[in-house]
Design brief:
Length: about 200
């Protein structure tokens, strides 16, 4: 009888320990693969979206406006340059597939961060270069990456916490993929994609 009770007790404990190990592994993996969100400004958000839409590890993208003075701004209001918002892409990414340093490398390689409030022919504060972070770790990663750039002293990229984000109008979402024959897409976005991806 004692042997039977011991066997039952041992078997139960072994199963309990195995279950605990299994749940611990699940929790560990979940923490490692928790998606992060970063907001990137690099000129017209159509261009930025088109680039990151082609990057493995990006989970979702939304074009929008962030960190301005007015609530629920429209694209027409943004274009005046008077609202203080930046055109941004909300990038949700899996850091296990796309480490933040790789994401930052793509960001800096696909726009000119040394031109203040301008990317090509797009001029205005809404077109400024910016990284709007959602955690202290993201801020530190961005600061560290910028310090490694050869032209670090000339970088105009704004580094600020994300205060508020307004999704842009529906027709701005997935813009390049839905409007590849549009003049701006053919003249600006398509060449930028070809230049980066080859």
């Amino acid at each position: 009888m004692i042997k039977i009770e011991y066997k039952i007790y041992y078997t139960f404990n072994l199963q309990f320990l195995t279950l605990n190990k299994f749940m611990s592994d699940i929790n560990s993996n979940t923490q490692e693969t928790t998606n992060q969100t970063l907001y990137l400004a690099a000129g017209c958000f159509w261009c930025v979206e088109a680039i990151f839409d082609r990057i493995q590890g990006v989970v979702s993208l939304r074009s929008g406006y962030c960190n301005g003075q007015t609530s629920n701004p429209t694209y027409r209001e943004i274009c005046t340059g008077n609202t203080g918002h930046a055109e941004v892409i909300e990038v949700v990414f899996n850091p296990k597939i796309l480490p933040i340093n790789d994401l930052l490398e793509i960001f800096f390689a696909t726009h000119d961060p040394t031109t203040l409030n301008r990317q090509g022919a797009d001029v205005g504060t809404q077109y400024r270069s910016g990284i709007f972070y959602s955690s202290e770790a993201q801020k530190q990663a961005a600061q560290a990456y910028i310090s490694t750039l050869n032209n670090a002293s000339k970088i105009t990229t704004e580094l600020s916490p994300i205060a508020i984000f307004y999704p842009a109008e529906d027709y701005h979402q997935n813009y390049f993929n839905d409007n590849q024959s549009a003049p701006y897409c053919r003249a600006v976005i398509a060449p930028k994609i070809k230049k980066y991806f080859g």
